[in-house]
Structure to design on (432 residues):
């Protein structure tokens, strides 16, 4: 009888808590701000059209919406959504390495936003793989162990994607716990952050280069100016400045769009953060350019320069590597933020060109019939980007991403330092 009474008491406490939690979630689902804004109207139109096109694609097959073929099985959904998108998400592993491993606390204000961007990029761009698969329900095969080869690069990339998304979710999860007011869970998740960061950095260095390794098997299909046995290293190095350029680009927009969310002291430190990121971009771009020159000279590709593809190669290298790295260098020297933003924008365009050159433009460059994405492929790609922005905005407006966490979740370094000092002083007296 006593056990039943205790059970009833627990139930009587649990039911109101569940109701309160449900009301809280419902209130958070309501839009915050104006509904009929230009972006909301544009997003609604793009997502509505994409919903219709995806219905056609999944009911009538790839041929109904794409220009893919047996000769060109990988199109814009792979070349841009996955290969380019993952490079843009590289800022997450670079920034977390700088903050949690190198202990560069100056960059701590942008960690959560960067990790959130990276996590959403992987979720949406990896999710876009389902659009490209002829039989999307078999995407689980690498996970459940059905008809896959453990020596396959594709198997390696698939598992890295899945594990890295889990690692990034753990890195971001303390913000969710703070939003929901889960104090005990927040403490546990905070303790997992460093391990998730180390695990995530390891996975990133592997699958960023792993995406490049996918093209090692297409030596005879990719133009010599873009094919190299060092392409995995080039993909990895370029993901560093690509990811940081995206952080600079998105950060500049976030400072305006989410101005009311940014803590004043963090807003004041924004300029120093951007300058620091620009220095890293410049350094890694110099390394990347040196590697590209080394590959070019070692491969003896001089004869290809005097061809249309050679001129296009120079546009990529000179216009979107040499010029941006020079702009980064000058901007850091004279502390010119507008020049840094311009350099970041040019760098992002260069990464798009490089990834599309490798996966689409210079792929089967000798073929008479070329792959050109259909308007439906481009519209669905745009919808993926818009959907990611909508989800990002929803999260930032509700969770402590740019603003300070709740007081109960904040670390108190002054107390920690005082405690360490007292312990050290007590130990010294005991030694005496």
């Amino acid at each position: 009888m006593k056990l039943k009474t205790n059970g009833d008491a627990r139930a009587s406490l649990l039911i109101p808590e569940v109701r309160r939690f449900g009301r809280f979630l419902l209130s958070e689902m309501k839009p915050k701000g104006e509904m009929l804004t230009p972006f909301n109207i544009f997003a609604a139109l793009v997502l509505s059209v994409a919903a219709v096109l995806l219905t056609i694609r999944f009911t009538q097959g790839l041929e109904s919406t794409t220009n893919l073929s047996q000769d060109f099985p990988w199109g814009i959904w792979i070349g841009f959504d996955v290969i380019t998108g993952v490079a843009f998400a590289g800022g997450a592993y670079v920034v977390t390495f700088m903050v949690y491993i190198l202990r560069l606390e100056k960059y701590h204000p942008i960690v959560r936003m960067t990790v959130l961007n990276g996590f959403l990029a992987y979720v949406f761009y990896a999710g876009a793989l389902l659009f490209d698969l002829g039989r999307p329900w078999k995407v689980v095969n690498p996970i459940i162990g059905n008809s896959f080869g453990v020596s396959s690069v594709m198997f390696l990339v698939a598992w890295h994607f899945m594990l890295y998304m889990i690692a990034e979710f753990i890195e971001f999860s303390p913000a969710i716990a703070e939003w929901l007011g889960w104090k005990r869970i927040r403490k546990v998740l905070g303790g997992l952050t460093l391990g998730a960061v180390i695990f995530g950095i390891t996975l990133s260095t592997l699958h960023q280069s792993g995406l490049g390794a996918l093209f090692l098997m297409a030596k005879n299909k990719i133009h010599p100016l873009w094919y190299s046995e060092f392409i995995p290293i080039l993909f990895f190095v370029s993901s560093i400045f690509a990811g940081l350029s995206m952080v600079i680009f998105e950060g500049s927009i976030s400072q305006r769009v989410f101005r009311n969310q940014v803590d004043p002291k963090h807003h004041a430190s924004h300029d120093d953060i951007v300058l620091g990121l620009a220095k890293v971009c410049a350094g890694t771009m110099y390394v990347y350019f040196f590697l590209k020159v080394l590959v070019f000279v070692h491969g003896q590709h001089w004869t290809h320069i005097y061809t249309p593809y050679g001129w296009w190669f120079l546009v990529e290298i000179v216009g979107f590597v040499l010029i941006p790295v020079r702009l980064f260098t000058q901007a850091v020297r004279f502390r010119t933020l507008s020049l840094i933003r311009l350099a970041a924008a040019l760098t992002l365009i260069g990464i798009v060109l490089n990834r599309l050159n490798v996966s689409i433009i210079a792929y089967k460059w000798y073929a008479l019939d070329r792959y050109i994405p259909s308007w439906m492929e481009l519209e669905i790609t745009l919808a993926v980007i818009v959907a990611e922005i909508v989800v990002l905005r929803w999260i930032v407006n509700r969770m402590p991403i740019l603003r300070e966490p709740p007081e109960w979740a904040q670390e108190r370094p002054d107390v920690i330092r005082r405690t360490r000092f007292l312990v050290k002083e007590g130990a010294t007296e005991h030694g005496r």
